[in-house]
Amino acid sequence: MGRLPLNERPPAPSAGPVEPLAVIAVGWSLLACCPAAALLGTACGLIALGRIRGADGPRQGRGLAKASIAISVVMGLASVLVGGRYSAASEAQMLSDVRVAVTQLIDSDLDPTAWWSGATAEGLIDYRRKIRAELGRARVEGITLVATEIGLPTTARFRLLLESESAQRVASVEAEVGADPATWMPRVRLRTMSIAGGESEGQGAPALEFPVRTLSEDGSPDAPPATLGGDGSPGTSAAP
To answer: Residue 60: what are its φ and ψ, rounded to 5°?
Structure first.
């Protein structure tokens, strides 16, 4: 009496429910290429392990929690390292492009239109004549990225130091930023340029500006867009 028949086995112990946070941690770990998601995946995995250890009964999900922690940490670190290098490389590429574009405008006789958006060769050559009449042949001595505005299109503002034998001026440039489909690196096309005026007989000389006009739906020219003043702040451009 009290013995089980030989053909019957005792019921297997219940494995218990799956810890919900372990499943959530796996979901965040799959998005761990974003550093914020990697942090959430790691945190949810750690909390899930603590809940499983402290549960009154058996609970599943220990393996899921450990896997999500490992994936989140590895992918999070990789995204920070790779993302930081890509950001630095992108900024360096933009600075290099703007330097080449401005140099080709002010210190060469090549057609500069390839580096500009919405500009004509005649307009840029006329602007080049004005710069050379004021400064002579100038060169870019320094360049800084001032700000980037994400949108359609993305725009960036730069401040440059131009120097010639007779003068030194600060210039501001606004550019459209796109992506090169071959390399995924940024591709810059200049939109406006403003060179701060110097001192002329005790009075500030006017800035040398190049606003880009666009055509409205009826084919007439719209008002020129705002350009950057000599201090890098937005200003209102005058009609050419």
So the answer is: -90, 165
* Structure tokens, 93: 């590429």
CA-to-CA separations, 119 to 67, 115, 123, 145, in angstroms, rounded: 55, 9, 7, 22
With both helix axes pointing from N to C terminus, report the angle between 35-54 and 62-106 in degrees, rounded to the nearest 10: 170
214: CB partners within 8 A, 6+ apart: 118, 221, 222, 225
- The pTM (predicted TM-score) of the whole model is 0.61
Query: pLDDT tens across 40-93, in order?
Result: 999 999 999 999 888 877 888 899 999 999 999 999 998 888 888 888 889 999
CB–CB of 226/213 below 8 Å? no
CB-CB contact of 214 with 230 (8 Å):
no
Q: Are 10 and 53 in contact (CB under 8 A)?
A: no
User: Averaging pLDDT over each range in 38-52, 109-123, 185-199, which range is the top one?
Assistant: 38-52
Residues 6+ apart with CB under 8 A from 26: 41, 64, 67, 68
Contact 48/22 with Cβ under 8 angstroms? yes
* Rounded Cα distance, 236 and 215, in Å: 18
* Distance, C-alpha 93 to centroid of its chain: 12
Q: How do residues 130-151 score in pLDDT, each as one tens digit?
A: 988 888 888 999 999 999 898 8
